[in-house]
Amino acid sequence: MTKALKIAGICGSLREGAYSRALIEAMADLLPEGSEYNDVDIASIPHYNQDLDTENGPLSVLNSRSLIAKSDAILITLPEFNHGIPGVLKNALDWLSRPAFTSCFTNKPVLFATIAPGPLGGVRAQAQMRETLSCMLCKMLPLPEIAVTFAAQKFPNGKLEDEATKKHLQTVLGSFLDQADLR
Q1: Which pTM was predicted?
Q2: Phi, psi of 75 (to 5 degrees)
């Protein structure tokens, strides 16, 4: 019997119709039946300001931290901006990484995927993402990378239609859940 999972998702792009949004929706669709999937709304998170990072800090931050703390695992999708992660995503991760050493990410299994319209699939953002997540003390499991190339061809009309990509997502997501002991 499959355990009912609570999964938090973070899409690293705010653009309407973002490929990152389509990718995280495709990954959520591949979760085991009965899983509860919830998006973290990074658009509502203000620019990081340590003066505001208190017990009564911004409600959007407190809600995001709570959602992640209550989740069994976290999925993140992102585009590559100027060979790195989008500023809006880095800002959200800065808020969610606090307090240091005991944040809502501590010991949480995290799986991330990059996506781009070109032939590299956002791979240059992956090193920066891995570095940021490693200092947040989350569980980064040894898995094949997910770097979706030629996004427009694989996600026509905003839905994943490429069977090879779907199979790769299914395989890596399954390995992630197995290694994280979540099924």
Answers
A1: 0.95
A2: -110, 135
Tokens of 162: 């490429």
Assign 1 a pLDDT band (cuts: 50, 70, 90).
very low
Q: How far apart, in whole angstroms, are the C-alpha atoms of residue 32 and residue 14?
A: 27
- How, if at all, do strands 73-78 and 36-39 pair? unpaired
Task: Return the beta strands (E) in 56-108 as ranges.
Answer: 73-78
Does 4 score more than 90 pLDDT? Answer: no
**For residues 123-127, average pLDDT:** 94
| Cβ(155)–Cβ(161) below 8 Å | yes
The DSSP bridge partners found for residue 111 are 75
Angle between helices 19-29 and 163-179 (to 10 degrees): 60
Contacts of 31 (CB under 8 A, 6+ apart): 5, 7, 37, 173
SS3 label, residue 158: helix
Nearest to 23 by CA among 147, 175, 177, 123: 147
**For residue 2, what pLDDT is reported?**
59
Q: Angle at Cα 114 formed by Cα 109 and Cα 117, nearest 5°?
A: 165
